[in-house]
User: Fold this.
Amino acid sequence: MRANIVDLPCDCDFRHLSKAKVPKRLHHAAVAVRADDCWDHMSSNLAFDACIAEGTLLARDLANERGDDMNPAHLERIATALATEYGFKHTVLQEDDLKRLNMNMMVAVGQAGREKARLVVIEVNAAADPEPDAKTVVVVGKGITYDSGGLNLKPTGFIEEMHMDMGGAAAVLGAVESMGKILKASGNQKNANGDRPLGGFSRAVFIVALAENAIDALAYKPHVLQTASGYIAQRTVSFAWDCLGTEHTSTLRAWQG
Assistant:
């Protein structure tokens, strides 16, 4: 038996948090393996898992932050910073863009908030030379940074945790972080088995729909939900298809408000 020290990456600097409270992290782990020829394979798996862990930690931290700080504008900045860091193409649709696309339900949800609704799209080309049967995966995350319930105010016992109603968007951005780290660490090259870092997917599109559902004179009335219900899903799907084209789409989970 021999022991190896694995240096687990811990480069999250918590700039997205409102307070500089950095939690304790595991920096090193001693791993014992039976033979030297096992180590390369094991260390490769550990490096991959560490990338997944970093994305998971980011998603957790984003979801735990309070809604006054983690509002749509701040979450947009985090999303675009992630895309820029890893060289991913990104597009931001602001409220006027959403209105032009007739995404009325999403605009309605955010119209009483201090920060207006917006949609962020991050596109990742995971393979410069995709396989003939390679597919595109699309992931959409709900990002209501605080859901008061609007005029249908949520009761005590539920409203306290509504800053976590953007957990879907947090998970999507965590996936962007993990994907960026994996592609950066691997150089986007095939491994010894001929597998790519992201398996059979050549392209990924991440969409986060951001808004805060607040109480205000501008808050939408309940009957608006009935007349506009489902339209955001239709427009989100249409926008995703415009980004992707009509080929190689495997999964699309649309946020419906």
Notes: Strands lie at 2-7, 28-33, 89-93, 118-125, 135-147, 201-213, 249-251.
